[in-house]
Design goal:
mainly beta; Immunoglobulin-like; 35 strands; 8% helix
Length: 457
């Protein structure tokens, strides 16, 4: 099952296999040899696991590659770094089932890497302070070994980062002293098993003034981890010591194994930006074009192209019926589109956001975007605010009667207010009985997001 992608479509991760020669090296660590020497029968029964690595010339693996081998109890038995494709790896193991994890591009000068004694499946490969991500890749495989066997394992690698290749903004005022672009909220790190570590970080790219005096561009490409939820893109321009910030909130996550190129143009002293970009995977997915406009009143964006036209990818599950529950999420809308059924889900839970007179629309958006990643449930991660049309279809009495509490959720309230997306990067309020409200509540607003899935008929 894959969730709807309305801005950045799901780009299938390239499955890369390490470089073309087989590698054999007996594990001669002291711990391993001591364990094998305790019983001569076990020595005779020991088998050999050889890690076979291949790649294509167009998609090489990132080196160094760090390999961890763990037993069924999750204990790490062996850890080894392959510095290049010419390095070899082969391990003597007893009969049993083992989990192999490998991280490509895990340079010790860039990442904090666990030793064999400390490594577990969920150990974080943490970025060192002041370092920038490499072309980080990960592979994992379960292998069952019999007695006196020679086993060969081929690892398939998936890229775990996205690449910001170029950022260019033209026609900037002559007196602009700095221009930067930020992307957030991004995952904090990567675990050995390939899962991401939450952290809601941001990546800022300082642009460099070009020789024409009005163009600004990044000095080099940047690898970043994907976003935890819907992404926010912020452009900052400093003039006469004053920094102006322009924020665009997408409706989707930034995905791993994809490439982003952003171009922008400043259109006048009123402070209006026009930005456009291409978000693509050059060898593993169709490009998606992203167009932004920035001005003093907010930001807008559109998406076109891509393999899914910005509307997600169909999955093989049977489409759930309206007023039913799918993976602990409530189905409140469904529509047939050709050979697919489009289903919109409402989250079982909500969070409260305080209403304050001093808060702006941007303040509420920032709190909403920070909260959305935490709504991930049963593999469904792309939560967003409902549109006005969707908000009108959400009725507290119906949701409550459907058994929301039995699904681990929270009852809705008919006369309290919930956030919805008014468009143009603005939020509005609707009542739990489906009516659009003209004002926020006096103390709190509720955030109960939605998402849309596609199902093949």
């Amino acid at each position: 099952m894959k969730t709807l992608k309305t801005l950045f479509p799901i780009l299938s991760a390239a499955m890369l296999v390490l470089t073309a020669c087989e590698k054999e090296l007996i594990d001669e660590s002291a711990d391993s040899e001591a364990a094998l020497s305790q019983d001569s029968t076990l020595v005779e029964d020991a088998s050999q696991l050889t890690i076979v690595t291949r790649s294509t010339s167009s998609e090489p693996i990132s080196y160094p590659v760090v390999v961890y081998v763990m037993n069924g109890d999750g204990d790490c038995l062996h850890q080894q770094t392959l510095a290049s494709a010419t390095d070899q790896l082969s391990i003597r193991l007893y009969a049993g089932t083992y989990q192999v994890y490998a991280v490509g591009g895990a340079d010790a000068s860039v990442y904090s890497l666990p030793t064999a004694d400390a490594a577990t499946a969920d150990t974080e490969i943490a970025l060192l302070e002041g370092a920038a991500h490499t072309d980080l890749m990960q592979a994992s495989s379960t292998v069952t070994i019999g007695r006196n066997e020679n086993n060969h394992l081929t690892l398939s690698f998936a890229r775990k980062v996205m690449k910001v290749s170029s950022v260019q903004i033209t026609d900037m005022p002559d007196d602009a002293t700095s221009v930067a672009i930020s992307l957030a909220p991004l995952y904090k790190g990567l675990s050995l098993d390939g899962s991401y570590v939450a952290g809601a970080l941001s990546a800022t790219i300082d642009l460099v003034k070009q020789s024409d005096g009005t163009s600004w561009a990044n000095a080099s490409p940047l690898f970043i981890l994907p976003s935890e939820g819907v992404a926010t893109i912020t452009v900052r321009m400093t003039r006469a010591g004053r920094t102006t910030k322009y924020i665009y909130t997408t409706t989707q996550q930034l995905q791993a194994n994809s490439e982003l190129n952003i171009s922008g143009r400043y259109t006048g002293d009123a402070g209006e930006f026009s930005l456009s970009g291409v978000f693509s995977g050059p060898t593993w997915g169709d490009p998606t074009n992203i167009d932004f406009t920035f001005d003093e009143n907010g930001a807008q964006g559109t998406v076109s192209g891509g393999s899914t036209s910005g509307e997600g990818t169909a999955n093989s599950d049977a489409a759930p019926a309206v007023k039913s529950w799918y993976k602990n999420c409530y189905v409140f809308m469904s529509a047939d589109e050709g050979d697919e059924t489009v289903v919109t889900l409402l989250h079982r839970s909500e969070v409260d956001i305080a209403v304050e007179e001093t808060k702006s629309n941007a303040d509420y958006l920032a709190e909403i975007n920070a909260a959305l990643p935490d709504f991930a449930v049963n593999g469904i991660t792309d939560w967003r605010l409902p549109t006005e049309d969707e908000a009108k279809q959400i009725h507290a009495a119906v949701v409550n009667k459907s058994g929301v509490v039995s699904q681990g959720g929270k009852l809705m309230t008919a006369d309290e207010r919930y956030f919805y997306d008014k468009g143009n990067n603005e939020v509005g309020a609707f009542l739990g009985k489906g009516d659009i409200s003209s004002a926020f509540a006096t103390k709190v607003m509720h955030l109960r997001p939605v998402t849309t899935l596609r199902f093949s008929k």
